[in-house]
Specification:
Number of strands: 18
CATH superfamily of the largest domain: Pseudouridine synthase
CATH class of the largest domain: Alpha Beta
Number of helices: 7
CATH architecture of the largest domain: 2-Layer Sandwich
Structural class: alpha+beta
Helix content: 10-25%
Length: about 325
């Protein structure tokens, strides 16, 4: 099979880990080099950017992209995982100042607004973040809790998604689900955001549903399911859904190379930019090095030295 290089936008189903999706893609397309650019929890669905072939080298330029989610937050009780997969927890820390059914739209929106901007989050114990070389969920599954340092994240948008401005009615168990939209920086734990919103309102809360609708510029409308990926391969039309390496990092500035510059770049030789009128980047700017629409490498611009060093070479001779 011809080697494939590029990105696939997969609509991750619920019940699979991001690693499971990567393994499934690997089996479907027959390419060993497959990776993703941002983990989704098993219960979550939506956009998972999967890199294939030599394009896996581009993960570092995509993993920090802004994310967008639609979620259902359940007010009424917390869980030990912060989401619907966990066991119910009724702790005194969640001081029930009022019943969830009594929340008004304005009250919820005021609490949501207080969580916008740059905030600190404590990584949840049930997460893949590492402490001392071990993932937190490994400690959690053994009943251990370890100290975690807060991380700074940015919540750019946090809004209610309700029909005609009405808050949905309560569930049979007395809890209430509200649908929300979140636009946030990479590394944000939406589970923690849901829990913190509950604390602002004086009640336990957790995520009932989570769907990533955008990662960077890649939207869920362009995503395909794993079954659709298999169909594209069987009909020999995979090229219609495989995003080229150059397009995958098109959010970065670029410089056009001639044949000789491209050859030297492939061999890791610095590109001198003295005399290039279009070069006005700040020192350290990451730049795509392109020849005739093909991504040759991603380099780092040195203003002092007047050159671009090809730090990640994608093309081969």
């Amino acid at each position: 099979m011809h080697l494939m290089n590029g990105a696939l936008i997969i609509d991750k189903p619920a019940g699979m880990t991001s690693h499971d999706v990567v393994a499934r893609v690997r089996r479907i397309i027959g390419e060993r080099r497959v990776g993703h650019t941002g983990t989704l929890d098993p219960f979550a669905t939506g956009v998972l950017v999967v890199l294939v072939g030599r394009a896996t080298r581009l993960a570092q330029f995509l993993s920090g992209a802004e994310k967008e989610y639609e979620a259902a937050i359940r007010f009424g009780y917390a869980t030990d995982t912060g989401d619907v997969t966990g066991a119910r927890v009724d702790e005194e820390i969640h001081i029930k100042t009022q019943r969830p059914q009594s929340f008004g739209k304005e009250e919820i929106e005021t609490a949501m607004a207080s969580l916008c901007g740059e905030i600190e989050q404590i990584p949840p114990m049930y997460s893949a973040k590492k402490v001392g070389g071990r993932k937190l969920y490994e400690f959690a599954r053994r009943g251990e809790e370890v100290e975690r340092q807060p991380v700074r994240v940015t919540i750019r948008e946090f809004e209610l998604l309700s029909r005609d401005g009405e808050i949905p009615k309560g569930n049979e168990d007395g809890s209430v689900d509200v649908r929300v939209r979140v636009v946030c920086s990479a590394g944000t734990y939406v589970r923690v955001l849901a829990e913190d919103l509950g604390k602002k309102l004086g009640v336990g809360a957790h995520l009932a549903e989570l769907r990533r609708t955008r990662a960077g510029r890649f939207k869920v409308e362009a995503a395909i399911t794993l079954d659709q990926l298999a169909e594209q391969l069987s009909s020999d039309s995979l090229a219609t859904v495989l995003i080229s390496p150059n397009e995958a990092v098109s959010h970065l500035p670029s410089i056009e190379l001639d044949d000789e510059q491209a050859r030297r770049t492939i061999h890791g030789i610095d590109l001198l930019t003295d005399g290039e009128p279009e070069v006005s980047w700040p020192d350290g700017q990451v730049v795509c090095m392109v020849k005739a629409g093909e991504l040759i490498a991603v380099g780092e611009f040195s203003a002092n030295r007047g050159l671009i060093h090809p730090s990640v070479v994608v093309a081969i001779e």
